[in-house]
Amino acid sequence: xxxxxxxxxxxxxxxxxxxxxxxxxxxxxxxxxxxxxxxxxxxxxxxxxxxxxxxxxxxxxxxxxxxxxxxxxxxxxxxxxxxxxxxxxxxxxxxxxxxxxxxxxxxxxxxxxxxxxxxxxxxxxxxxxxxxxxxxxxxxxxxxxxxxxxxxx
Length: 153
Hints:
Layout: H1 19-24, H2 38-54, H3 60-73, H4 76-99, E1 141-144, E2 149-152
Antiparallel strand pairs: 1-2
Helix pairs in contact: 2-3, 2-4
């Protein structure tokens, strides 16, 4: 067989894949996601059959068009069988999530107090109280000791 040639595949009907086959490929994080839909399960079955024939992996970009074309030619009963397998997988995931007891971690989420700031030699600290500007009356300018600047009236 030519290395560029991909053989025609007959995907098993009824599906040979089991719910355990599908879920065993998932990481712990992905077990919290929804089950793959009927097409993704069909694609998995197609890839398995292809590997049986050629014995190696082929890039998905090369075989995706053929998988899609094969899926579109399948009769409704084949599509329904893969849809049922998707539903069984989703039910199994729900059961696993229900039996999975949550772990509560109790932490004190209050922020630690900020470290004391070191005095900067360039900053002069005045203990002058701040008064609202409306309390000032001046002809032209007044000096704001708190902000260390002049304001015009």
